[in-house]
Amino acid sequence: MKREEIVAPVVVDGVVELQGQNPLVRIDAAAASRVRAEWRRAVPVCVRVNGEPATPWRTNMMPAGDGTYLLYLHGEMRQASSVAVGDAVTLELVVDEEYRNGPLHEMPTWFAEPLAANETASTNWRRLAPSRQKEVLRYFAGLQSDEAKARNVERVLRVLGGAPERFMGRDWREGA
User: pLDDT tens for residues 145-166?
Assistant: First the structure.
């Protein structure tokens, strides 16, 4: 959403739920269609929760696979709007037309080199959805110690190699 444009938001009422460790609000198919019709992928949106904050958060509504979408509410969003799991909320959603897809973080050499040396992992990396690649690179960008980098490269190469394992809050199977 361009900041100088006034676009009427789609208003959705919901309840903050917990899925695993992730607070979210489910967006039913009809409401999701009002936000972005005929869409089956993640929808970049600007969102306000209970009217907060003044400048909307930029995030994505993630498809649940059944026509509904999940809008994850990270800690800053919940704190700014004073909501917790179980609370009823009113969401104001507008498609974020300024969003540009693609990695925000470059692939670090400490990951690129071992990945290139592992043919199976490299093939599965290229098969990953761009959003999953972006998620991994964002996670890696936050790692600071050499030990953490080495430990996480070892784990990502294992899961990309096909080992069933939990990594970055997800169950990985057959390299994805």
Answer: 999 999 999 999 999 999 999 9
Neighbours of 29 (CB within 10 A): 12
8 A C-beta contact, residue 167 and residue 159? yes
CA distance 163 to 119: 14
Q: Could you give the CA distance from residue 87 to residue 152 in angstroms, rounded to a whole number?
A: 35
Rg (CA), the chain: 18
Residues 81 and 17 in one domain: yes
3-state secondary structure (DSSP) of residue 34: helix
What predicted TM-score, i.e. pTM, was given to this entire model?
0.57
For the cut 60, the answer to whether the pLDDT of residue 39 exceeds it is yes
Same domain, 70 and 119: no
